[in-house]
Design brief:
There is one protein chain. It is built from 17 helices and eight strands. The protein has 333 residues and is α/β, with parallel strands linked by helices. The chain has a single domain, classed as Metal-dependent hydrolases (TIM Barrel, Alpha-Beta Barrel). An eight-stranded parallel β-sheet has the order 1-2-3-4-5-6-7-8. Helix 5 runs parallel beside helix 7.
């Protein structure tokens, strides 16, 4: 169960994977867009994963319809705002939301920098209304290749002071980290933190590259870490965070089932693994589900779940003072 005296934190949640079904319906009506169904119950199979998918890329196909709804910058602003409001409604104390400007812009040929500005506006409105603490990560999508990723980076950099870090996501198997070395150099130059999706659709070498070539301070998913004892030792010694996403890893068939997930082994070996939601709108879950249903199915004890919650505090892209204030607030509430 969730420990009430520790902040509830989500470090790995995609705005694009967190769009409400009701918002999809509303935007489709407003803009005369076709949908395969016009009520939430019948639309949900088209936008939510309801059976295990054969891999990560087939899981990502569920994003196609929600991205069609991002017809203008107001729609981008809205989904960012609602992502914050929804996180607050879950009782989350601090969340790091992430998004790919190019992915959000692509379907309707929006200006990527305009998307960044709209998302930041939506985040700020949600933060002002709810009081939740939020930080934003920009994503470079590997799937587009390094040239488009550089354009994506250039859409983010003018607003660097309002963004805390950079992530690399997308087609890990076909676009290795080394293609994006210069991108992450530029991110470090503006003071950003770095997290990288790695070890989900590729092996442990992908994680090594993310750390050594890109300077990753956290790893998203990181399933392949379990296959390399030297890598586990390295992560333990440096306390590099692992952003675990239990349900989405089952849904992408990256693990066979919850019991096969390596998070228990990570925690048993002192690695800084945390529990996160990934794409709640696509997976049909929220962070509480991951703690209260998925984590016990993965074999975690109450003490291990508590440790994962502490690990999220430790590996958050926050200053020591911000972490201290979050912990104080949780203890006093």
């Amino acid at each position: 169960m969730i420990s009430q005296d520790i902040p509830l934190i989500d470090l790995h949640r995609h705005i694009e994977g967190n769009i409400r079904i009701s918002t999809i319906l509303d935007l489709a009506r407003q803009h005369n867009l076709d949908l395969p169904a016009w009520d939430e119950a019948n639309l949900s199979p088209h936008v939510q994963v309801q059976t295990q998918q054969p891999g990560v890329m087939s899981f990502l196909e569920k994003f196609t319809l929600p991205m069609r709804m991002l017809v203008n910058l107001d729609a981008c602003r809205r989904v960012a705002y609602e992502a914050v409001i929804d996180a607050a409604a879950e009782g989350i104390d601090y969340i790091e939301l992430r998004f790919s400007p190019w992915f959000m812009a692509e379907t309707h040929a929006l200006a990527p920098q305009g998307v960044v500005e709209a998302v930041l506006d939506g985040i700020q409105s949600g933060r002002n209304e709810s009081g939740i603490q939020v930080k934003l990560l920009g994503i470079l999508s590997r799937t587009y290749g390094p040239e488009i990723a550089m354009k994506e980076l250039e859409a983010l950099l003018p607003l660097a002071e309002r963004i805390v870090g950079l992530d690399l996501a997308g087609d890990e198997a076909n676009f290795p980290a080394e293609l994006f070395e210069r991108h992450f150099e530029r991110a470090r130059e503006v003071g950003w933190k770095a997290t990288v999706h790695a070890g989900e659709a590729a092996g442990a070498e992908s994680v090594w590259q993310s750390i050594r070539v890109l300077g990753a301070q956290r790893i998203g998913h990181g399933l392949a870490i379990i296959n390399d004892l030297a890598l586990m030792d390295y992560l333990f010694e440096r306390q590099i965070g692992i952003e675990c996403n239990l349900t989405s890893n089952v849904q992408t068939s990256s693990v066979a089932d919850y019991a096969s997930h390596p998070i228990k082994t990570f925690l048993e070996n002192g690695l800084c693994a945390s529990i996160n939601s990934d794409d709640p709108g696509i997976s049909g879950i929220d962070l509480r589900y991951e703690y209260e249903v998925a984590a016990p199915k993965a074999g975690l004890t109450d003490a291990q779940i508590r440790q994962a919650q502490l690990n999220a505090v430790e590996s958050a892209f926050l200053t020591p003072r911000e972490k201290q204030n979050l912990v104080k607030k949780a203890k006093s509430d």
